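Aim 2, interim progress. The first record below pairs a target sequence with its structure tokens.
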Amino acid sequence: MSTVALRADGLGKRYGKRFALEDCTLEVPAGRVVGLVGPNGAGKSTLLNLAVGMLAPTTGTISVLGGEPASSPAQLAKVGYVAQDTPTYAHLTVGEHLELGARLNPAWDTELAERRVARLGLSLDQKARKLSGGQRAQLALTLGVAKRPELLILDEPVASLDPLARREFLQDLMEAVAEHELSVILSSHLVSDLERTCDYLVVLVDSRVRLAGDLEDIVSSHVRLSGPRDAGHPGELVTARHTDVQSTYVVRYSGPIADPSWTVGQLSLEDIVLAYMERRTEPAPRALEVAR
């Protein structure tokens, strides 16, 4: 089994003159629950569609679980996919969805699918169009999990759900991960959902990867510094705000800060993600003395 769920090198997808994804170089470890976050239009869906073989790259390369996306039946069987709006076939019943899954997927787990449907209280003869948004999302997740993939890719599957349905979906997802040892890539613009479910994070902004790493490492290595205007700062600058007398920086830096004129504040994951979304280019900072 591959130790890398997804690897991209210089990956890009262009539509006309516009790149929906550009110069994406990324390595996502297998065996993790990976959150993919960014503003609308950042390239999240494009990256996931490239990963499942629904799109072909304009530039660069991408591999999933060591193989080219959708390059063979065996490669297709390794990856489960739940697209945006958790699509189901309105005219098919729940039972017909399960039959279709069994016909299309060689490793299909009928017992698992039927057990999940029963636990969710779904009737096998109920048409998909009669299901609530949360029930359709759960049916789509059932189809993805019962395929028995090594990697499950979910593209904002809970975006249209109410808070209760969203929580139930994510709880079911985490149970499936624990039970079946899935690798997961979950795209969402709701940072709170990713914080509850994921242990690895990728931030996409303006069609480029801005940040990737272990969730705990990301939170522990970013701080907010407030102090005298233009006093200089350690580490990598993420964002800066200034008044006439004070500067406030978000920086990536995990060492102790010796200068007592700085106030150091901790950041939530949402604070960090939002900082990368609003990141702007500034002149290189002056060096700041730090404790050794």
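The second target in this work package is listed in the same format:
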Amino acid sequence: MSKYSFPEEFLWGGAIAANQAEGAYREDGKGLSTVDVIPHGINRMKVKLGLEEDLTLKDDEFYPSHESIDFYHHYKEDIALLAEMGFKVFRTSIAWTRIFPNGDDSTPNAAGIKFYKDLFLECKKYNIEPLVTLCHFDVPMELVNKYGSWKSREMIGFFEKYARCCFEEFDGLVKYWLTFNEINILIHSPFSGAGLYFKEGENKDQVKYQAAHHMLVASALVTKIAHEQNPENKVGCMLAGGDFYPYSCDPRDVWMAHAKDRENLFFIDVQARGKYPSYSKRVFAEKEVNIVMEENDLDILKNTVDFISFSYYASRCASKDMENQTEANVVKSIKNPHLEVSEWGWAIDPLGLRITMNTLYDRYEKPLFIVENGLGAKDTIEEDGSINDDYRIDYLRQHIMEMKEAMEDGVELLGYTSWGCIDLVAASTGEMSKRYGFIYVDKQDDGTGTLERKRKKSFYWYKKVIETNGECLI
């Protein structure tokens, strides 16, 4: 295996998202966001896919985001635990509705600004660099109800105002920014990805790709604003990553895998290269999509990102007919017979991380940042109170080893933030039992629990990984 040594400035850390951790969903002036109306249980997927028009809160539904793990009130305790592990970077997001509760407010919410300022100052107290996502699957519901979310071009102005406020208020506290989390997910899960739901008779592809255009213009515009606000700001895009493998060497399987990769990489092609890719013309024609643009949109798109960030949990597999798809993830895939899977059916493929890193770096020649990677699993508390999550340690160890191989291949990597460093609500299922963290939170799928934090075995393992700058992985 690789004898590569990580650079001294490598950013080790972990990641959470506001909508999966903060809770306090209406506290201190916060408005209602899209994730706040996505229930746990049998109706969850219907809402996520944009197939439900009634998006009011129901008394007989449980909404995990409303309390989540209450990071809003526990952040000092949680940041101290991350500092104990030696974190160099902490990825989180800003809840848009804490800053502008309705999205189209004339002035920002002072309480929301204060919360994030205090949070980032707490990080700085421990020399932890915040890595902040502006929009992590949470659009203000008022903007959904009034404008149809990203269907409307007016969203660009609302997002610009919100982003500008963040760049100004947190200047000097935050240097690393991401515009949209897993932007390609809007194709696969339109409501959770972009606040989109469909009306009968609509061309869903037209709706999705027009919304995508508005988001891509908004991303490029705020990237430009971030650089103008402070030349030290570094702005990245974010992909739900993982290459598609052809199910066989049948050329039709190979082509399907290629087409599926393009479907996801389309967004990053625009954000990293500053223009629509050549293949998009045929794709749009075949899907009967006509992108409505304004005169200067293509010029705005030339404001490209500084780095490419991505999540990686699993590789994917494609065949010519795409039958027998696994239902484990919103990005549909054929089950790969060569790989084991997690308790939730996600393929475990450490080498796939190296493959994905090489794909992205070869394609864009921009620095990469792995901002999500981890194993969702059920954890058991032993009689002595310990949580022996060796399966998580093994998963992370193997992926970090392949990460080193990719860096020795020549891939430039800025840092690594494992997902859900503190247990949180799983975005896919709304479960707490699908745990990712080094820190256990006493919270169950039905919302019960004390919220007590406990260190898992992986907590001490990851502390050693950071202490040795990735040299000790045992």
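The chain has one domain: 11-467. This observation will shape the mutagenesis plan for the next reporting period.
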